[in-house]
Amino acid sequence: MRDTRESRLLLVLLVAIAFALITIDIRGGEQSPLDGVRRAAASAFGPVEEGVAAAVDPVAGAVAAVRDSGDRSKKITELEHENTLLKQRLGSNDRNRARVRELDTMLKTAGRGQYGIKGAQVIAIGAAQGFSWTVTIDVGSHDGIKRDMTVLNGDGLVGRVTTVGPSTSTVLLASDPKFTVGTRLEKSSEIGFANGQGDSTLKVELLNGKAAVHPGDRLVTFGSAQDKPFVPGVPVGEVVRVEPAGGRLTRTVQVRPFVGFSKLDLVGVVVQPPREDPRDTVLPPRPAVQPTPTVTVTATPSPSASASANPRD
Known about the structure:
- Keywords: Cell shape.
- 32% of the residues lie in helices and 23% in strands.
- By secondary structure, it is an alpha+beta fold.
């Protein structure tokens, strides 16, 4: 543009308009009528400014200062992002604390039964090799895992190892309809066989058709020859229903398993069986029954009541 009288007048006019807009913007504060325009400009030119910031840093800094005057949206976005990260960390810490408690419970269970276990994590769940209820764990032959080893967690019996790879293994869960394990009833030592029923209870056939069994009675694994596939004494579940005998040679009971098969995470593979049968010692102690407080009320008759009961002749 040539340096003419018209160009100089135009420049003065533009400068005057610019100062007028700045004055209006400053006086308006957060209610400035230019606030919407400023936001639109920031959205449109922000990426471009970041790309050329190194080349025009002083100018870009000044423009950004004017553009962001009274605009807190960027700071709010940053704070929201920080809050999201904190919530994620808190959730992760909660999960870690829960897993520490789960691991501690499993180690205590293994300690009571004197089981040597190899800790593992469930990394997949679903059908495998024709089995309906299976999980995959992250240990295998490189970790000393072999077929037909007992798998447990802090609550009790999880299942048995069916397939072993170099770094992973498949576990058939006790809830699978093809799963069978020998059981022994707490205290009475009545033996039987438990079978999975999918997501329902375990069905246990006690060999003694006249066995005395009641809801609330608990069962543990009976154990197998040479401790494969099952070591003795692992908690199995609690009786919830006793089927009518009906003159049969066996007694059928429904058992709620101690293990929640839909929420498995950390498990232990028994790589070293106990030297002796732990019997019922692995079962958790029953909660103490709190006595019901009783209140004795002594009634003392009033003098007027005694007089009315014994009127004079």
